[in-house]
């Protein structure tokens, strides 16, 4: 893909991988619509981008779990920018703890944001990409937890496995439209997903509504040595995301150390045929 003059929509765009990717796309001449739940963070993100690149940057407050709001967002982007070329379904939240101790609201929150959010992104933006007839690219942030079971992250794994499947099927279905698809599956990245409870609204019990035994996801920094994988910077991961758009790469796997875990999972599956 040639980036100059393109338009990208990035959910979860006010911080972390979303904002880092926005910075790198802006440097390549891509206009941006950053989408997030937090108005103050969005305002700060836009200010940073406007001082570092000569492109159009817009911010929109939107909850990706709200289908009606996402429909309005897509119509707004199409009218404001006249087109959309890259859609990065990146927004996500997490809660930790054993599956048996998750509340129903824990499950609903994670599935609504982490799985329905990407589904909504496809539903509302794909018609615009296809009608333009000029190709494009759809991306998803999944996780290492979308490839290998992570104990203590059951709902998150369920959602992220679904995101991987969504990307894999969509990739096949969009070949003739020249629309690329990528799915990002990192281990630890220096984001603030460990504090995603700040975005948990009253529909899901509000902040501090975790069931007994569940908790916020552990911070992904070096202070938690028991977690697998190096801690990568958001800029390192964003560079891999941009390269995947440019080269139409399906799987984005920034942690080489995840390879052994993935290999062992598929070996277990393969051995089951012999049983």
Concise structural overview:
The protein is of the alpha/beta class and 275 residues long.
What does this structure look like?
This protein is an alpha/beta fold and 275 residues long. It has a single domain (7-274), classed as NAD(P)-binding Rossmann-like Domain (Rossmann fold, 3-Layer(aba) Sandwich). The chain is built from 7 helices and 11 strands. The protein has helices at residues 16-26, 39-52, 67-81, 104-132, 154-173, 234-247, 258-274; strands at residues 7-11, 31-36, 57-61, 86-89, 95-96, 136-141, 179-184, 188-189, 215-216, 231-232, 251-252. It has a 7-stranded parallel sheet, sandwiched between helices. The protein has a two-stranded antiparallel ribbon with strand order 5-9. Helix 1 (16-26) crosses helix 6 and helix 3 packs parallel to helix 4 (104-132). Mean pLDDT is 92; it is low at 219-226.
Provide the descriptors you would attach to this structure in a database record:
Rossmann fold; 275 residues; two-stranded antiparallel ribbon; 11 strands; globular; 44% helix; alpha/beta
Nearest-integer average pLDDT = 92
Shape: globular
Order of helices and strands: EHEHEHEEHEHEEEEHEH
Residue share in helices? 40-55%
Please give the radius of gyration in angstroms: 18 Å
For the record, the count of structural domains works out to: 1
> In which order are the strands of the major sheet placed?
3-2-1-4-6-7-11
Head-to-tail CA distance between termini: 46 Å
Class based on secondary structure composition and strand pairing: alpha/beta
